[in-house]
Amino acid sequence: MKLRILGSSGSVSGPDNPASGYLVTVDNAPAVIMDLGPGTLGELQQIQDPVDAHVVFSHLHADHCLDFPSLLVWRRFHPHHPADGRSLCFGPADTPNHLGRLSSDTPGEVDDFSDSFAFAAWEHGRTEIVDRVNITPYSVVHPIEAFGLRIVEHTSNKVLAYSGDSAYTENLVECARDADVFLCEATWGDGTTPRPPQMHMSGGEAGRIARLAGAKKLLLTHIPPWGDPEGALRAAREEFDGPVKVAECGQVYEF
Ligand SMILES: [Zn+2]
Ligand SMILES: [Zn+2]
């Protein structure tokens, strides 16, 4: 399994880093795009044909899904290589309505994208087969319906866990149990600045989950352009003995 960081900037795009988006590939099977924040579609074009991928969403905040209408344009109207069938799409129950409105020509109307994607809603704990991987969503703590995702490759049983956006929750410990790579948000850096409750995590909280879950490697992500990656790293290392890095646009992790 290969994880590529399309963008890791938290809450908004950065000057040289799109907002949240990750590409998961297994051999030559269609890829799985995990979140599709502003700028990630451009990054994806440097790597592969954007059509050749399924799309899954942790949640529908703008910084995780705004490039989806552009992907629909590409799939429907590319003059040489439009999509020749439907790919899979998974996300919160409101995805067709929410992203259909985003893609509609007329305010208040919904663009029905079932021509391009077969959609099914996540249900906490119910595993979905997405080509060469199984994905199990875990409910997490955020102002809107949001999920952490546990991705297991069929043949190797390698595990990638992704927190999405969440405050600290035991569900993420289950989501990341024995994961080979745990990609976890660390919006609040070293955790010392005042912050609203029930929103995001610090590097220390990410490290604590990685330790309790027995994860093998921790990647910190979703740090905003005004954030503190060094502080997040320090705090995570105080909690977690294993390798910790900050996810950066363009990085590839193979495991
Ligand atoms: Zn976010
Ligand atoms: Zn969010």
In the CATH hierarchy, what is the class?
Alpha Beta
Which structural category do the helix and sheet elements fall into?
A: alpha/beta
- H-E order: EEEHEHHEHEEEEEHEHEHEE
Q: Considering the protein shown, what is the CATH homologous superfamily?
A: Ribonuclease Z/Hydroxyacylglutathione hydrolase-like
Distance linking N and C termini: 6 Å
What summary fits the major beta sheet? 7 strands, mixed
What layout of secondary structure does this protein have?
Blueprint lengths: L1 E6 L13 E5 L5 E6 L3 H6 L7 E4 L5 H4 L2 H10 L9 E5 L3 H9 L13 E5 L6 E3 L2 E7 L7 E7 L5 E4 L7 H6 L5 E5 L17 H11 L4 E4 L7 H11 L4 E3 L5 E3 L1
Parallel strand pairs: 3-4, 4-5, 5-6, 10-11, 11-12, 12-13
Antiparallel strand pairs: 1-2, 1-14, 2-3, 7-8, 8-9, 9-10
Bound molecules: zinc ion (2 copies).
Q: What keyword list fits this structure?
A:
single chain, 255 residues, alpha/beta, Metallo-beta-lactamase, Chain A, seven-stranded mixed β-sheet, 7 helices, 14 strands, 26% strand, globular, binds zinc ion
